[in-house]
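Contributing new records

If you add data, match the layout below exactly. Sequence lines come first and carry their own label; structure lines follow with theirs. Keep one chain per record. Anything else will be rejected by the validation script.
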Amino acid sequence: MHRLLRGEVFMLGGFVVAAAVTILLVMPPVIDPAAAQWAQTSTGPLTAADRDLLVKVRQAGLWEMPAGEYAKTRAESQRVKEVGRLIMEDHMKLDLLTRQVAKRLGVALPDEPSPQQQSWMAQLAAESGPAFDKDYANLLRDAHGKVFTVIAAVRSGTRNSEIRKFSEDCMRFVMRHMALLESTGLVNHNALPEPPTPAPAPPVAMAVDSRRHT
């Protein structure tokens, strides 16, 4: 009787092992999506956020360089013409740097701006005079503010030394461009996105007057 029970248990165990092996062979392995987006490079791990930064900086240049060309003939303000030229020249340098870094890290870059950026280009291409000046200054200032937050977030958390240096270079360019655009006197700061609401400050302890206890 005991030998029979041991035989049944052995057979049941064999079936369980066989079933487990079958499941492992048939079912695909479970991969953590976050881990799958990481890649190891000679300068450290490369994350999806690191790659996205390269893409966004590349796309920024792909529409701001043509916008600078528009400013040569469509702007009325001499200051807008000058700012357009300076930003265009900076983006030519930054675009070269972006492509070099992307090549070293094996990141594919787009060859055209985003749909929204293309709509901004179309808007500026249809304007001239004061309307162009105002929209050029405000569209570019708004775009620089948004990409600046992306750069800062990547710089604060990247594990890749190449991206760390690249993001620092980008921050210098973007800060210079925001100041240039604001120097036109046409930027509507009230239309820019407000900074995020800070967390409530902890309560401040009341100071104790030692003289009241003497």
